[in-house]
Design goal:
The chain is α/β, with parallel strands linked by helices and about 500 residues long. About 35% of the residues lie in helices and about 20% in strands.
């Protein structure tokens, strides 16, 4: 915990969680203590979170002048925090009502913001109106829940002059994607964490000048992520899209099944989306089914393209050493397949959808004719893409990918390890089922490959059948086999030898 003195002498408090580059976090409510943000669903594993207790909330002091509770007056507090931390520029996150505050700060101090994350943000500052009718209609997404009629009845029974405290208590279940124990505890804590007496002043008269703010944000060129919940009523995804469109570099992500507190509904999905946005080495594309796919790049944009696809339970990070070397002659793209790394984890997996993830990257980035390297499961996805869309793939490298023969003996049920995982465990049994009984058409398709194909085998230390990998190389019309005695992870175990054989093949 740290403290600093703001422009008017008010002592404010901030809390830090995690390590790395700081991310300044502004809590909503409005005027709710920052403790409700927690570690933002595990985002603290990627960045140091610096959560400000707004004046009069949490451990921050109440101001001498109650008029300074107004949203626009908090802008100077954020600027004082930046100066106190000694940051020339900062990444800034605003949730809910403080989406307004973050937007006002960006409009007033654009040169001080490296990137802006607006999480289920308030939109009053830019003049986007959410009507009561629109809110009511959006709330019907919960209509199939057993508690929904009781919530609507409770809201309907409130007097016209009901306080914000009464309304928010009655509507609490509507603010979450699912009303489970975690959501109940999170909502219940809000009553003690909120400065209810000062709350009406936050959106008080004069707080916003939408036309001026819109004009200022039209020139705000830093990257902006607007993250909405598909089950949120304020803002709805449609209104969040309007907000994102106001920024020259605005991007919208809609978290499936999430409400107003997306890190509570699905911590991993939230943290992955925000971490991917904040990481300057990571970009994203969207697959046709809406799945967000993260990827990393190395090398000059004008160099010949080369795509790398990791194996099961891996990620784009595993290619770092190899990619850095290949980037001297290529523009290298390393993809996180769905269910892995910083891509979405939708819960349904197969070799076909992994193939289509690779296709989505090729299509979105116009990589037609790029060379393609896949390891293990990624090698299978690469093989299937080369069969299905031969016009997309230049040269193909399959590093220890299966040759589509059924496993003998087949893999039986597997139990999830009792530890945090950086991949979606549900993909393991899904892939095992296909390894046990692969589609025979895939094996036949090897004989139709148009791309020159290099099969890199790991030799006697590999758990994979080396005879089947040799068969794959023999059946490919323009196939060849190279064995590197390194086991299954050739590119990681013996990167120099892997690079030598791959470069010779790519440059042939």
């Amino acid at each position: 915990m740290g403290t600093f003195t703001s422009y008017d002498g008010t002592e404010l408090t901030y809390h830090t969680t995690g390590e790395g580059e700081p991310l300044i976090c502004l809590p909503g409510g409005p005027l709710r203590a920052s403790s409700y943000l927690g570690d933002l669903g595990g985002l603290a594993a990627h960045r140091q979170l610096v959560a400000l207790d707004l004046r009069g909330t949490g451990a921050s002091a109440a101001p001498a002048d109650p008029a300074t509770y107004r949203c626009d007056r908090h802008v100077a507090d954020v600027e004082a925090l930046r100066a106190h931390l000694g940051l020339e520029r900062m990444d800034l996150l605003g949730h809910s009502a403080s989406g307004n505050l973050a937007a006002l700060y960006a409009a007033a101090h654009p040169a001080r913001v490296s990137s802006l994350v607006l999480v289920t943000p308030g939109v009053r500052a830019v003049g986007i109106e959410i009507t009561d009718e629109e809110w009511d209609e959006a709330a019907t997404v919960h209509a199939d829940q057993e508690w929904y009629p009781h919530v609507r009845a409770a809201l309907g029974a409130l007097p016209e002059d009901a306080s914000a405290r009464e309304v928010m208590a009655a509507a609490a279940p509507l603010a979450y994607g699912r009303w489970d124990d975690a959501a109940r505890a999170h909502a219940q804590a809000g009553d003690a964490e909120t400065n209810w007496d000062a709350l009406p002043a936050f959106h008080g008269e004069g707080a916003y000048a939408p036309d001026a703010t819109r004009a200022a944000l039209a020139g705000f060129t830093a990257p902006v992520l607007v993250l909405a919940g598909s089950h949120d009523s304020g803002p709805t995804p449609r209104r969040a899209a309007e907000l994102a469109a106001l920024f020259p570099a605005g991007e919208l992500v809609v978290q499936a099944g999430a409400g107003h507190y997306p890190w509570v509904d699905d911590p991993g999905a939230f943290a992955r989306a925000v971490a991917a946005f904040l990481d300057p080495e990571v970009s994203t594309v969207t697959a046709p089914d809406g799945t967000r796919l993260a990827y990393r790049t190395w090398g000059e944009e004008t160099a010949p393209p080369l795509v790398l696809v990791h194996g099961r339970c891996g990620s784009s990070r595993e290619w770092a050493e190899v990619a850095a070397d290949l980037a001297t002659t290529h523009r290298v793209y390393a993809l996180d397949l769905r269910g892995h790394g910083l891509s979405d984890w939708p819960g349904t997996y197969s070799f076909e959808v992994f193939r289509d993830d690779v296709r989505a990257l090729f299509t979105a980035l116009d990589l037609r004719g790029a060379d393609l390297i896949g390891h293990s499961m990624g090698g299978v996805a690469a093989l299937l893409l080369a069969q299905d869309a031969p016009e997309l793939v230049g040269r193909l490298v399959n590093e220890e990918g299966t040759a589509f023969f059924p496993l003998d003996p087949p893999r039986g049920p597997v139990e999830r390890p009792d530890e945090p995982l950086d991949f979606d465990w549900s993909l393991v049994p899904a892939v095992n089922a296909q390894l046990n009984a692969p589609d025979p058409a895939w094996r036949e398709g090897v004989k139709t490959l148009a791309a020159p194909t290099l099969v890199v085998a790991g030799g006697s230390q590999s758990p994979f059948s080396q005879e089947q990998l040799a068969w794959l190389a023999e059946q490919a019309p323009d196939g060849r086999l190279v064995t590197v005695e390194a086991g299954h992870l050739v590119h990681a175990g013996r990167p120099d030898e892997f690079l030598a054989v791959v470069r010779e093949f790519l440059e042939a």
